[in-house]
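Page 42, continued from yesterday. The earlier attempt failed because a stray header line got pasted into the input along with the sequence. Redoing it now with the clean sequence only.
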Amino acid sequence: CGGNRFTMLPPKLGTLTNLVELDLGNSKLRTPPTEVVSKGTAATLEYLARMYDSKSSLTLDLSGMDIQSMPVDGIETTGLTRLALSNNLLKNVPWEVTDMTSLTELWIDKNHLDVLPAVIGSLAGLRALNLNHNNLHSLPVSIGDLEKLQVLHVSHNDLESIPESVGDLSALTDLRLNNNSLTVLPLELGLLTGLSMIALHNNPLVSPPKEIIERGERETIHYLNTYTQSRTTFELDLANLRLSEFPSQLLELQDLRRLSLQDNAITNLSPNIGQMAKLTELYLQRNNMLTLPEELGRLNAVTTLDLSQNRLSELPPAIGGCVSVVNFRAYSNRLSEIPAAVGSMPGLRELLLGNNSLTYVHPAVGNCGEMQHLDLSHNRLSTLHASISNCRLISRLEVSDNLFTTVPPVVCTLTALTDLRFEKNHLTVLTPLMGNLVELRMLDVSNNKLPTIPRTIGNLTALLELHANDNIIDSLPPSLKDLFSLQRLNLATNKLKVFQAEAADLTSLKRLSLSSNELVSLPPEMGNMSALKELLLDGNQLSTVPTSVGRLTELEILNLDGNRLSLLPPELAGMTALQELWLHDNQLSVVPEGVADLTNLCVLTLSNNQLTNIPVALTRLKSLNEVWLKDNQLRAHPFRQGNMPNLNVLLVDMGVQVI
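This time it went through. Structure tokens are written below.
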């Protein structure tokens, strides 16, 4: 055939498998191209055979043929569904490809492409596009027009960015972007929720942060999806992602209203936070921040600002620019003072500064006339400034675990208080002015050094809970009986020798603790406390219990551990709701009569007494699941697996037996 003027060899020639030599010297062929012909007869026939087969298979595979351009002649573009041009020498995507409108797969990997033409977007039926191992620096925006694309491989290129339009590829399930020069992934990738495979490794990515990338591709897509959703919800939750830096992509979300960055490892808040002017809620708790940028003060729309549980030693004065703050939380830091700037937050209702190192409360706090909740607990305070009296709406004041020796007079001017906590201080007296706080529902003065409770306590008729345990109180005021709303009274660990009969008029009381006092008897009127559910009398010196306790029909827990009881009245059987009866460490020689009638009893402790026998009648208590009998003089007990279906723990001298 040499020396002829053929420009194309017929593809059917490729079926001549026995042809050994084909002389094409001095021909002017375009198909096959010169680079194929120069490789010899076998390569030429292989090329022609592939072209011939494509007419029936609708697949044309010219991979590994070293071609530099697409053949012009001999290709039937109509109906072709798969075109493979992998591992060749192509520098451009052949324009002929864009005429192949039936293509569903296009493989041009391992070539020398540096540009992907915009017309690639016209291949509307394309489902797979492989561009791996080329020299591409970018992808055209039109890539997003390939609505049916399921597989997109562009790894091992020089891509520096990905167009946002990739987010329009809603059918995409497999995306390979590894081994490029990408520093930022577009947020729109987060829209590709159908992705089952995404490769991002070996890119110098800074956004998403490395902490997200390290968690895997699926977490990365979820992270980006969270961003994209925030464009419509205006809320972004990036909590508990181990982030060490403020994510730069946040600056793309200028309309964000709520931002959660809590439970990360952020050490420095970017000054760029000041650009997010529409934020109304900012959550930064539980990070490692040491300082805050002045620019934080530009967030004049923020109503909730949570800086708690960081390592902040000061707040910038500029924070006063956050004039709309309603809820300000900075507890569990290292703050030594409250900045005057707090007084520039006129709408402040909640100020939580507990667990810091505060020794002084700035008078400017008094400017916060809308304040309702002030928490200064776990600090080093010994006084409160009189300006706090201007905060007349405060309903909850927490100053526990400080250095107060007296209740500051200013506290007694806060007549809207419903919850007052002074536990774990050094109080030696309660001022009678406490009686002015008639709206109080909760009063906690436990763990102090109080010897008495003032009689004005009786003015607090709305009080529901009174905690005065762990003091040195040796008597109770008669006015205690006037607390007719009281439901919980804790007087444990004091010096009480008598519980006055008048106190038994507290008929609303549900829980009463008199543990660890010096009581030797109880008044008969105890039976009047008909609402009691829990009565704790352990650690006293009681030798008897009044028969009236049998009227406590609502009682569920009765603890008499550590007393001097040798017997209990049979009226005990009247406590039909009793679930726990604690009689450890007494002087009982027999199980009290009536215990066998407590059909709801679950826990019975009789250890460290003088018992020699356990009545068989106790086996009727089918609700029992825990019995303590250790340190008695028993030789046997009636409890067996067969007769006690719910008994789980039996503590006897032989050890713990699990039935």
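Notes: The domain at 496-658 is CATH 3.80.10.10 (Leucine-rich repeat, LRR (right-handed beta-alpha superhelix)).
Reminder to self: strip header lines before submitting.
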